[in-house]
Amino acid sequence: MSLAHDGAAVPPAAPAGPGLHADALTTLRAWEATDAGQEALRQRFVAHLESTPDGMWRSSYPDHLTAGTIVLAADGTRVLLNLHRKARRWFAFGGHAEPGDPTLSSVALREAREESGIAELAFHPVPLQLDVHVVPFCDPRGGVSHLDVRYAALAGPDAVEVTSEESLALRWWPLDGLPELEPSMLALIAAARDLLC
After folding, report:
1. How confident is the model at residue 192 (pLDDT cuts 50, 70, 90)?
2. Beta bridge partners of 131
3. Which of 104, 76, 107 lies closest to 93 in space, CA to CA?
4. What gap in Å lies between CA 101 and CA 12, rounded to an integer?
5. What residues are paired with 141 via a beta bridge?
6. Is residue 167 a contact partner of residue 95, using CB atoms and an 8 Å limit?
7. Are 183 and 102 spatial neighbours (Cβ–Cβ below 8 Å)?
8. Adjacent-strand bridge partners of 132
9. For residue 162, which of 121, 120, 115 has the smallest C-alpha distance?
10. pTM of the model
11. Strands 144-155 and 167-174
C-alpha cells in the first residue's frame, strides 16, 4: 500500500459538529480488523459512536474516542516515543479531537505533529490498530476509557524532534532496545514496521 507524503498543513478547519463524528463512524465501519480481538474493539467503537452524538469529545463520559500515531524512522530501525508528562510512561503520540479537526485521521496526524515537533511525516491514512485504555487523570468525574484509533507514519532521515509541553522527553528507541511498553504498543510498532518498511 502506498503512502501519501503529507508535509503540507492539515486541511482547513471544519466547524465542530457532525463532520468529524460522521467521518469516524464511516472509517470504523469500513475498517478491516486483523483478528477477533480487534474486530470486537471495532464493533465497540462503532456502537459507541452510533449511540453517543458527542462520542468524539471529552464531554462523552465515561468513554470517548481518541486518535494517535506511532512514528518510525524512515529506515524502520527506530521508533520515536514520548515520555508522557502526566502518565510518566513512554507512549506513541496521540490525544483528543479538537473543534477544527475535520477527520479522524487528521486528529492523529495533528497530534503526531504537535507532540513530536516534526511537521513533515509520511502518514498512512488508514487505522492500524484499535486499543482501549482507562485514563485516571482525564476527567474529574473519574477514569475515562479512551477508545484509541492508532495510525502510523514515517519521519524523514533529517527529521528533528522537539519536545512539547505534554511530554517530559522524546527519544528515538532502537526496535531491539525498547523501554517497558504495554503489549498493544509493542504490537503496534511491529505492525507499523511490517506495513511501512
Report:
1. very high
2. 148
3. 107
4. 9
5. none
6. no
7. no
8. 147
9. 115
10. 0.89
11. unpaired
d(CA 89, CA 137): 14
Question: Residue with C-alpha cell 511537521?
Answer: 119
Contacts of 98-102 with CB under 8 Å at 24 or more apart are 99/13, 99/15, 99/16, 100/13, 100/14, 100/16, 101/10, 101/13, 101/14, 101/20, 102/11, 102/12, 102/13, 102/14, 102/19, 102/20, 102/23
> Residue 97 gets which letter from DSSP?
-
Rg over alpha carbons for the chain, rounded to the nearest Å, is 16
Taking each helix axis from N to C end, the angle separating 18-30 and 104-116, rounded to the nearest 10 degrees, works out to: 100
pLDDT in tens, 116-158: 999 999 999 999 999 999 887 777 787 889 999 999 999 999 9
The secondary structure element, H or E, covering residue 108 is helix 104-116
